[in-house]
Design a protein that fits this description.
Helices cover about 65% and strands about 0% of the residues. By secondary structure, the chain is an all-alpha fold. The longest helix is centred in the last third of the chain and has 32 residues. The protein is globular and about 45 Å long.
């Protein structure tokens, strides 16, 4: 009688990540994703301007609104595209998840208070002779419709698009390699520079407070685990 041949058990299958866990995006996704979004925005907005003949007048607020809206869509789409390279993207991967209400309010309030204190100190010391004209560029001073359109872009579109990309995607990609403070500083610096409008050297002086704001937003996201308090 021949002895029974024992079969080697197959290796255990690699367990899949839980549905709600956040994937670790490579850190280089952040820089490359930003460049892709920026170049795509220039190309798309340039095509729209060439086809419609808009944008030739710097005071064309309608074109500015359309371009800003397209930029928001492109940045969100780029984040989703790069995230899909690792795993099918889900809302919670970008921080769009529920969080405890009062702790979130507390951390958001502390973050904004810290920002205002630092911004006030910076303004008192540097006294920058420049200010942002985003609302005016979007037509807020051109009647009721312009004010509504500008308000919608500033209050709704910009916060969602910017936070989704810069904190939900860009910062989270950096965190796969660098600690919180380093990733937040890198995120904040880029966030400040992206708001520079190239209108002159004085305009560059208002970017440091925006960089601080981007840094603070990263810390609030870390403490709350949710993007909603930052968007709000």
């Amino acid at each position: 009688m021949q002895p029974a041949i024992e079969s080697t058990p197959p290796p255990p299958e690699r367990p899949e990540l839980p549905a709600g866990s956040a994937p670790r995006w490579p850190a280089w996704y952040a820089g490359v994703g930003f460049l892709v979004a920026l170049v795509t925005t220039f190309i798309v907005v340039g095509i729209v301007a060439a086809v419609t003949g808009a944008g030739e007048d710097e005071s064309d607020s309608t074109f500015t609104v359309v371009a800003t809206f397209l930029q928001g869509l492109i940045f969100i789409g780029t984040a989703l595209l790069f995230a899909s390279f690792t795993r099918r993207p889900r809302a919670e991967h970008f921080g769009l998840r529920r969080a405890r209400f009062w702790p979130s309010v507390g951390w958001a309030a502390l973050g904004m208070l810290s920002f205002y204190v630092l911004a006030a100190a910076y303004t008192a010391i540097v006294q920058p002779d420049a200010e942002q004209t985003v609302a005016q560029d979007l037509g807020a001073d051109e009647g009721t419709f312009g004010m509504i359109a500008a308000g919608f872009m500033v209050i709704c579109v910009a916060p969602v698009a910017e936070e989704f990309f810069f904190r939900g995607f860009f910062y989270r990609a950096l965190r796969s390699r660098w600690p919180t403070v380093v990733a937040a500083v890198m995120n904040g610096v880029l966030f400040g520079l992206i708001h520079f409008d190239f209108s002159g050297a004085e305009a560059l002086l208002i970017t440091p407070p925006l960089a601080v704001l981007g840094f603070v937003f990263c810390l609030v996201l870390e403490k709350t685990g949710s993007l909603y308090p930052v968007i709000a």
